[in-house]
Amino acid sequence: MSETASYLYAIAAPVGDDVLDGLRGVADEPVRVVRHRDLVAVVGTVDVSAGGAFGEEALARNLDDLGWLKAAAQAHHGVVDGVARAVPAAPLRLATIVADDDGVRERLDRWHDGFRRALDEVAGRAEWSVKVYAPEVSPPDTDAEPARAPGTPGTGAAYLIRRKAAATARDDAFARATAVAGQVHEELTRYAVDARRLAVQDQRLTGHDTPMSLNGAYLVPVDGADTFAAVVESLRERHEDCRFQLAGPWPAYSFVTVEEP
Amino acid sequence: MTVAPAARPEGVQIALVDLLDRLLGAGVVVSGDITISLAGVDLVEVRLRALIRSIRAEEAR
Fold first, then answer.
1. Are residues A221 and A184 in the same domain?
2. Whole-structure pTM over 0.95, yes or no?
């Protein structure tokens, strides 16, 4: 026997079936809305029985499965993004699951005013990401030191000096990138309705050669996107030794927070 | 049996690292009946980071 529950993607302004019809959720299920007053919750029905992918134990296990997590995150984003392109939408975190639609309505009622404010905040706006990475440090010039035969006194010392010089150069590059990050964030904040500095991502996760110094999120009006991109471009030119990354527009993931009443 | 969610055919690409940053750490919090409170649970985050590292390794191949 299968037991089902309602998986929540977003709280939104009422949205048409034409938008929902093209969307598939984390279990490849069709998505629908649960309406309460002037808000809807965009939900899908998922299997939470012991053998289902979203049962409590199975879910914990699945979240540890790279392929599953990746597909689920992308499917979740697909629904949120599809809805957010059509109507103001407040994204929910991955794997927010409520027993049934009555539970969904109960939450819509309890948090109505907070959701309403959140939707007003994101209406007509989208999130952009701007990242700054430290400059590349050129490898120490190995020709600077005359070649010596291995084992000759002095080789080890020269190696250590070169290593120390390289480490100092990396520190200087990161200090420079940190200063640039502050300036860039300050400048971009003037072109955004809201701005946040997220924790910089670990270099092992970004796959970049140099560390990240800015992981900025910016809430930008839809009609201000071109200007915002142009400002990023001018900052890139001004700080051409650092590497810049602009991405978006995305649903306003970083700008919707609803306090528990 | 786990059915892998279908890949999204269109839309703006978002790197998995960026997506997880946001889906796990931000967004509205509505407590669900099933307690998978990912955010703020360090252990989960650590596991995710290990996972993401393996994604990177996979993509690099």
1. yes
2. no
